[in-house]
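TICKET #2291
ISSUE: user wants both folds in one file
ATTACHMENT 1:
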Amino acid sequence: MRIETVRKMTIYAVPAMLVLQVLLFLVSWIISAASPEPVVRSLLSNEGIRWFFASFIDNVATPPLVWLLVLSMAYGAVVNSQILTALRRSGRQRTYRQTFALRIVLVEWILFAVVVIALSFVPHAALLSVTGRLFPSSFSHSLIPTLAFCIIVTAVTYGVLTGVMRSLEDMFSSLCKGIASAAPLLVFYVVAAELYFTTAYVFRF
């Protein structure tokens, strides 16, 4: 799915969720007022208002937000390095610099795989949990950021070796462009997360 398609979808999805958020305020108040038993929590009560304002940061500051940020940076690095263009081409269509850069990238991925295996998949590895499990563990908690880091490093390596990225500014800009491309998803996430946790608060789940 293209970024532009995602952008168009969020234009309609975000206002719809905001409307649902407003309706949730009204519905929670009506049900709590009409029911003699506390079936739901009212968002318009003193307790509900305090919860809504006090919990916003905790509701939004979740691991998926971090995953979205680091993956968007990785996306920007990949797109701006033009590595995907080289991968789509056959060996004869690539220049010498592109071929050489892809080989270095392959070596980097092998090294990353060796390091991850050494830290996670051997007995008493550093990233295993205290009980020796892989899930949950430091490995599972850092899986998405680690993957994003590997993608960023290899994409930037390719961009530098092929001359697409000529300076630190080019490297930094590629990461920023990735975040800019994912901006609609960030807006969608903030609204969706708040709607989810508000619904969970009202209906007690």
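ATTACHMENT 2:
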Amino acid sequence: MIDRIKKYHLCIGCGLCASVLGEEKCKMQLNGEGFYEPKAIQPLSPSELELIKKLCPGIHIEAKAHKGVWGAMISVCEGWAADTDIRHKAASGGVVTSLAICALEQGLVDAVLQVGVRDGSYLYNELKISHSREEVLRNAQSRYAPALVLHRIKEIFDSSAECFAFIGKPCDIAAMKNFIGQFPQYVERVKYYISIFCAGMPSYNATVKTWQMSGHQDEPVSLKYRGDGWPGYFVAHFEDGSNFQLSYNESWGKILGHHVGFRCKICPDGIGMLADVAVGDSWNTKDGYPDFTESDGRCFCIVRTSAGDSLMKATLAKGYIKAKALDIRNIKQQQAYQYKRRKLEGWRLIPVQLMTGGLLHFKGLAIWRQALSANLRVGLRNMQGTYKRIKKING
């Protein structure tokens, strides 16, 4: 099962399989492309194989029934952090950071699970457990590279009785939901699921390629992908005191965004459909396209569940964020890529499902409802393109 998932490049590198099976049976490692993937150390039993099928978010995502392009929603608003320092530092106006800080400071959770850079490294990411405003803010900026988000999750849950808010990409949210679905003893451990909109996860190799444009031979001592402005600059700091920076359009648009894995290209959920609150950049638009001119951070928030509604209302009432009404139709222009992907995803999944023998189980995401409303010619072209990609990656 693990080899089949890897063969078709469906692994997202979350590490959940290693956490559940134990490293004596399954171990995560970096491959030559700069992505994490599991290596089966011992043969798995039939029950373990069945468990992996239900746990792996690369092949299994199950949601309550969604219908529209943007999924289930209770409310939609455009917001930003009331604290100007948080708004400036965070990647997208600081709403995700402010939601987490509010949950902590108001005693709604004991800690926040979020991804940050590994201590002592400029490059590698890991899951952080934040207990304070300062720790949440330290990990506030986006990390456009892999992370073993869940490879320690059983250990974390078993080592304390803390209640968490969990911040992640949509596939991370799906992974956590899969895990708790199979291990219901942990159901009370995650109170809030907060998702960012995601256009794909670049490899570590892509990050190295980006900073190497500086011409430096030595590795950076620290690096950020964006933030300290909106969208902010990719900035690498070197030991000699020099810095190298690229605009968001240059770093993501021309390098990082072109080095995402195959699973990201067929992702059935880039908009956090399983989250309590999903947050994305509320881009200014110019001639129908996002305008990445530096500005004050702003994002839209889709509140999907009663838990998310409660958290959002508390964050607004306590003055952590400021918000205004937003017409959901505006998101089509602000997030044109996500809109297009939602419409065409079903077409991209058809050849994958056929060639893998029905390995994918994506339920409740309105994939086929959206595919049937897409342009037939464009859909068929996407289906053909995906088929060619699969053939290419499998030699």
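RESOLUTION: both attachments delivered.
EXTRA DETAIL ON ATTACHMENT 2: The CA atoms of residues 209 and 255 lie 8 Å apart.
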